[in-house]
Specification:
- The structure holds 2 protein chains of 2 kinds.
- Chain A is an all-alpha fold.
- Chain A has one domain (23-206).
- Helix content of chain A is 63%, strand content 2%.
- Chain A has a two-stranded antiparallel sheet.
- In chain A, a hairpin with a 2-residue loop joins strand 1 and strand 2.
- In chain A, helix 4 (43-67) packs across helix 6.
- Chain A starts with a helix and ends in a 7-residue tail after the last helix.
- The longest helix of chain B has 44 residues, at 6-49.
- Chain B is built from 5 helices and 8 strands, in the order ααββαββββαββα.
- By secondary structure, chain B is an alpha+beta fold.
- Classes of the chains: A mainly alpha, B alpha+beta.
- The A-B interface holds A 70-75, 78-79, 82-83, 86, 89-90, 93-94, 96-98, 100-101 and B 3-4, 8-9, 12-13, 16-17, 20, 23-24, 27-28, 31, 34-35, 38-39, 41-42, 57.
Chain lengths: 216, 234
């Protein structure tokens, strides 16, 4: 009983919840921005990317944490890279086999998970010095923090840029100018610059609610 | 054990690499059949798209089996030769001398009669481009076209795979009045070319557009004997 409690102790839960808000990898640490701009034009790829990164960072954290006492210090970065690269290739292969159309959309960005700064950052800063379970929670937390921002950005970009949510049309066809209505999609929302601005707005909102995050 | 020693480091790295290599090979082998199936389905979808039949990944196989009534391989003289048209890999065929090349043909039953679909492959700006051209029974008028690419610039060359570029191919002809093969000219709107042989190129995608024009000219030329033969006795 006492052991089970320890699994989700307050300290451990903080590992899960902190990255969602006060130490969010995208809005606070400003890591993993490039993929956040590239895959958020629609919600579906954003969600798949979020799941992929979460799976890779959580598993990599656990593996590195298990190995942490054996890894030779001089090649630790290379060991981390090999672990990440192997997991990313696995994810890529699985996507190709089971969700081919999404894998085509994500194309090069799945491979680029390898260079996602969040991964190396968590391995180097957390997994190398902590036990597997804590590392796992930290990985899930950071993946979720990253994914949450991706999905929020994807939601607004798809809604305003394509008039749909997760591929389902929410703005009636008859509203569009081409069908005699008054509405047009905002083409800017589909382009990466608006993703950056959307993330900027999210950072603004977050900092105005959580004043501790504002730098002096 | 000295964890910072050379021997430990070396052995550690070697063992790790071997283990990871084995793991990845196993995964690759295990998932390959499924991945191959996916690319096959995509190919079937592309073939059907060239005759304006929209399919989803789920029903593509069924529709393909229903609509594509015949497929065969011809040589440069237009004679039928042995081989499975669907399995012909254009990339390897292109490396062979013309006389040994296998040229696949797909016959597809549509609401507007039988269409002849010819696969194409050429070079864009950054990588290969490919596609399917569907001809009417006169072996001259284009019924539809579907193009794809590996890595053309999004918004520019990549536009070749959009309906905006593909639609205008419908109704164009590839032979002139005297029966000479002129293929299709992909040109700027102010460029002089007979209207029935011309489609609009893509602004900012000139190299891809020209590559596509070259692909059509080269590949249709290879099929020329087959097309002429079919024209004689449909």
């Amino acid at each position: 009983m006492s052991e089970r409690e320890a699994l989700f102790s307050k300290k451990n839960l903080k590992l899960l919840s902190d990255p969602l808000n006060s130490s969010n990898p995208i809005t606070v640490q400003v890591l993993g921005i490039c993929s956040a701009l590239a895959v958020t034009a629609q919600m579906k790829p954003a969600i798949v990317m979020a799941l992929s990164v979460t799976a890779v960072v959580a598993l990599a954290n656990v593996i590195i944490s298990l190995l942490r006492n054996t890894i030779p210090n001089r090649i630790r970065i290379i060991v981390q890279l090999v672990v990440i690269a192997a997991l990313v290739i696995l994810v890529d292969q699985v996507l190709k086999a089971y969700v081919y159309d999404v894998s085509k959309q994500l194309s090069v960005f799945v491979g680029l998970i390898i260079t996602n700064c969040i991964l190396m950052g968590r391995l180097e800063a957390f997994a190398l010095g902590n036990k597997p379970w804590q590392s796992f929670l930290d990985g899930i937390g950071n993946g979720a923090g990253y994914g949450a921002i991706l999905i929020i950005v994807g939601f607004f970009r798809e809604l305003l840029g394509s008039g749909s949510i997760y591929g389902f049309r929410v703005i009636p066809e008859s509203w569009y100018i081409t069908h005699g209505g008054f509405y047009a999609n905002n083409g800017m929302m589909i382009l990466p610059p608006m993703a950056l601005i959307t993330i900027g707005i999210i950072i603004w909102v977050q900092r105005s609610r959580n004043r501790k995050l504002i730098e002096n | 054990m000295n964890r910072n020693g050379n021997i430990y480091t070396f052995v550690y790295a070697s063992v790790m690499v071997v283990l990871v290599a084995a793991l990845l090979s196993a995964a690759s082998i295990a998932l390959q059949p499924k991945q191959k199936k996916n690319t096959e389905i995509e190919k079937k979808q592309n073939i059907l798209a060239s005759v304006h039949i929209e399919t989803t990944a789920k029903d593509a196989e069924k529709v393909y089996a229903e609509k594509v009534i015949k497929s065969y391989v011809v040589d440069m003289n237009g004679n039928e030769v042995e081989g499975d048209a669907f399995l012909v890999d254009l990339k390897t065929e292109k490396a062979k001398p013309l006389s040994e090349r296998k040229l696949p043909v797909f016959e597809c039953q549509t609401d507007e009669g039988v269409k002849y679909i010819l696969p194409l492959r050429g070079a864009g700006l950054w990588g290969p481009i490919w596609g399917y051209l569907a001809l009417n029974e006169d072996m001259n008028t284009i019924y539809g076209a579907n193009f794809a690419h590996q890595g053309e610039t999004p918004g520019l060359g990549a536009e070749i795979s959009t309906p905006i570029f593909e639609e205008p191919f419908k109704g164009k002809t590839i032979f002139d009045e005297s029966g000479k093969l002129v293929s299709i000219i992909v040109a700027k709107s102010n460029e002089k070319a007979p209207e029935q042989h011309k489609v609009d190129g893509i602004s900012g995608g000139t190299i891809t557009s020209k590559g596509l024009q070259q692909m059509l000219a080269d590949d249709l030329n290879n099929y020329q004997n087959f097309l002429n033969k079919k024209k004689m006795k449909p």
